[in-house]
Amino acid sequence: MPVIRLSQSLGSVALLVFSTLSSAQADKADVVSSLNSDYERYQSIAEALWSSPELGYLEVESTRLLQSALEEEGFSLEKGVAGMPTAFTATYGTSGPIIGILGEYDALPGMSQAAVPYEEPMLDGAPGQACGHHLFGTASLAAAIAVKNWLVDSGTPGTIRYYGTPAEEGGSGKVYMVRAGLFNDVDAVISWHAGDANTANPGTNLATISGKFRFSGRSSHAAAAPERGRSALDGVEAMNDMVNMLREHTTEPTRIHYVITDGGNAPNIVPKTAEVYYVIRHEDVDEVRSVWDRVVRTAEGAAIGTETEMEYEIIGGTYPRLPNETLAGVLHSNLSMVGGVEYSEDDVAFAREIQGTLPGQLPAIESAGEVQPMVFTKGKASADTGDVSWNVPMAAMRAATWVPGTPAHSWQAVAAGGTAIGYKGMMVAAKTLALSAMDLYKKPEMLKKAKSEFDDRTGPEFRYSALLGDRAPALDYRR
Q1: In this structure, which CATH number among 2.40.160.20, 3.30.43.10, 3.40.630.10, 3.40.190.10 belongs to the domain 11-204+320-458?
Q2: CATH second-level architecture of 207-318?
Q3: Rounded mean pLDDT, 412-424
Q4: Which pTM value belongs to this model?
């Protein structure tokens, strides 16, 4: 696995973009104006996704809505790609560079929340858009359509492709699309994510392997005949105890999370079945594999010690993101041009109430209107965009769709994502992606530079191998 090398000089890329910006100013102004005029259309789509959130690989209506909007715009669709019924690609154009834009739309379990500044689930236990994927999928859609219209109007040769990517939250949907070769002909991919600030930073995050461990025992009356039972839950708990001891003997960036997804049905019945769901993270792919193997051995030992049977299934696996500062510079230049999110008085009032529910020292509300300097980052989260970045030059940005200081996967993120704060941030992302794609079509030297950087970072010996192996998509992992 090659070491990710991070340059300390970022200025040359931004200067290259800005140096020729004036000649394209009118085109960019027209594209921004068109996106402004279509604000209500895209707000309506995002609101529909937010109001009816769907879990990974179950995003039937979400996918249908996005596909319909793209078909109306003349895109050619391939549906159900890479063995995933809710995955698709939408392509416009047959010549010139191919630029890919990623779109996500899956929600998170148990995160239902109304668009109010206090905790209030709309339906207890239901899903919610706690990572802003309704905004993600819609902004990318808006950008792809705006770029398509500009290609047609300007006569510029180029192809724009929207990737409808399901099950980012633990399902590794993009990995299967990479494995199926759906990015093989792409020159560059640009993407974004919801956030609490406006940034376009090159950087890394953590690789992952996730999986479910299932123990099988023998049921019996827990009081009258306990000696006849063999508790599958004991197997899960013994495994968890050993993993928690293992934590002391892992390298510093290692992260291990688990949740018991099946612990039995009644305390007076020795549980016949039990299941625990694990996620392992580390910045290095080889170390993730090593820690995963050690976790598997704890499960094997737990089964021996509790006289139960154990089987496991790898659910997902993702690479750390490979930075591309060339493409990040293009995104940052255009994000700086677009600017941040402008709050109304009502937005400010909502934001103040949200910040009142968050702990610690928080950024100023006004920071949502600012674009942060471009710096290298080392994130602690993970995403299946990592696998894309190791197969094609890719960069991503963030827009302030949440109140500053809001963490992802929180009710506060769901709440803001259903308000004007979320929709305004979404349009910042749509404009930035569209303008950045325009630069890449008009400046082939940027694509060449991005590819050269990609080749340098991956190295001549690198061969991609998916961390989830050759398994088929885990279509039922959220059922």
Answers
A1: 3.40.630.10
A2: 2-Layer Sandwich (3.30)
A3: 98
A4: 0.93
